[in-house]
Amino acid sequence: MADEVSFVEGQAEDAQGIVQLIQKLESETTSIEFDDAISKLSLEQIGENLNLIQQSPLNFLLIAKLGETPIGIVTLIETDEVKHRAELGVGVLKDYWHNGIGTMLVDEALYWAKQFSWLEQVWLAVLDNNQYAIQIYQNLGFQTKTPPTMDGQGRQIIKMELSLT
């Protein structure tokens, strides 16, 4: 049924949809940033990277789809191989905010991290004025470990962490 949201790991054939999703997310909000390198990759290269992510015990990508259309994404990207740390990133299209999709994406990523990965810690950065997201992260067990910092755009950023061990 096209009205149901499904959650699937990103595969090579999802490359175009993921690129379009990222472009739309970046146009809808300033609270999410993707690596600029993505825009320099071909769809074939993105597909190859998606296949590599699926095989990795330290990286994860899950897409929320409404029918065949991607409407949300969550990633765990390894940031410290020695300490087995990964950064969590999540984005949901504005039309679907406050429907539990972001929470479900994060919850699924954390389940994967706890059950199937080599990760020991997940961390994230969130704007301090995004109280809705901060509450969700706290409800999922994330804790703030350091005072907020200022980013390059003059915004207050809160770093939160979750230990998986």
TrEMBL record:
Q: Which UniProt keywords apply?
A: Acyltransferase, Transferase
In Gene Ontology terms, what is one molecular function of this protein? diamine N-acetyltransferase activity
Q: Kindly provide the name given to this protein in its UniProt entry.
A: Diamine N-acetyltransferase
**Annotated N-acetyltransferase domain residues:** 5-165
Q: Is Acyltransferase a UniProt keyword of this protein?
A: yes
Species of origin reads: Pediococcus pentosaceus
EC class of the enzyme, as a word: transferase
The gene name on file is speG
Q: Which Pfam families match?
A: Acetyltransf_1
